[in-house]
Amino acid sequence: MRETTSSVTEARLAGSRVALFGIIAVVAILAAAAVFLFLNLPDANAFNARVERIFVENDLTSEAEIKLLEILAQSGTAFSDTLTGYRVVIFVLMVFAAGLLVAALVFVLTIIALNRRMSEIERAGIQVNSLIISRADRTVYLNNMEFTLTEAAIETLAVLAEARMDDDVMTGAEIEAVISGRNAADCDEAAGATRIKRLRDALGNQLMSELLVRTIARRGYMLSIDKDVIRMV
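The chain above was modelled as a monomer; its predicted structure follows.
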């Protein structure tokens, strides 16, 4: 148990480190891209500087020339304002992209963690804290879930429960023999397998039924739960 707990803890720590490093890598890459982009954008005052240089280097005295310079200066101011707006838009888009990538990374890691958890459940079997079988009412109480089964299904489950309390694994022929009252040698294995299939169908949830009623290769069937939680009423 200590080894299992230690491995689970180490796996969680490793997953947390991967998530942290992934988020840092995403933010760092986007930050580097943003810096590169902003450094390569033209200076917002470049146009105004050129206009000023033209005014200084040339002796412009006529009214038309001065008017032209004023128009150029106004165009430079408009260009500066537009470029500033572009910078803001680019910054917002970069922040939005960073948020989306971080969210996508978290979702992917969450899906991976859920898949691992499902694999652990499949390996360990379903966790049952209480299994109450009422033959009279043809009702099964599995943890907090209530199932009303057919008479054949409740008999099959009751046989499996009694076998589990005795730590026995039953073949399909033995299950059919107990229910029908015949000798196991005179019963067909397929008849018991059919009863198991109908029991699983009656339980409904495929994952739960497959894990609750376990098939052991070349041996038979058994309930994959602790025998201490089984009660027959």
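Residues 2-124 form one domain.
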